[in-house]
Amino acid sequence: MVWPFSSEKIQTKDDFRIPKDLDELLKQEESTLSEREFKSNLKQLSELTNHRPLDPSPTLAPKDDSNAEKQSDLQSSEPKGKIVTAKTALFENSPLLHDSRQDPKPLTQEQLKNARELSQYKRENPLHASVLVNCADLQLAFLNCLTEGKFAERMRGCNVKNNFYQSCLNKQSMIFKFFDYNSMTSIKEFEEIKYVADSLFTKYYQCYDDLFEEEKNEKFAKELRAKREEFHCRFGK
């Protein structure tokens, strides 16, 4: 194949002529055509050399009106004057839903006062602080032993009194959680749980050795369950 810009004649089946504008461009030193015109002429020349007819201008595909006809048929089947929306279609065969939300009633002065007192009580009497209060006498006995106890007990670090104090903390914490202390909603409920925990522990455990007696442990557990049932019936828990 010979480059179309050369002076030799291009041999093709059908003779053709170089466009006039392109011929003038080749003869002149400087082109007078714009870049767009030059590219257009070059494209025409390449199509002629390859014996390919020019591409016809694209035509738009015929529009499919089948969907439009179906929609028009559906709209014509609906009764005139009726507007169908997503909301009407959803509630067409069901009763209207009424808004159950209501404006909250304002609290009375007495209710606000009780709420403030309860919030303050919770801050001042958390679970761990209430447990420490119930075991405060055993803690004091342990500290006195360290400073004023017998020499033999102090040499052993007052282990017996310390172990009894630690056991009190564990038992009291278990009772408070058993009654679900943190979920109470009134000061009376908090005070009742503290009283039950303290009274049951002091009733069955007078010294450290009592913690290892199975009979006392069984009675303690039985009465603890009975106290919880009584508490639930009394406060409606």
Automatic annotation (TrEMBL):
<feature type="compositionally biased region" description="Basic and acidic residues">
    <location>
        <begin position="62"/>
        <end position="72"/>
    </location>
</feature>
<feature type="region of interest" description="Disordered">
    <location>
        <begin position="29"/>
        <end position="81"/>
    </location>
</feature>
<feature type="compositionally biased region" description="Basic and acidic residues">
    <location>
        <begin position="29"/>
        <end position="40"/>
    </location>
</feature>
<protein>
    <submittedName>
        <fullName>BA75_00250T0</fullName>
    </submittedName>
</protein>
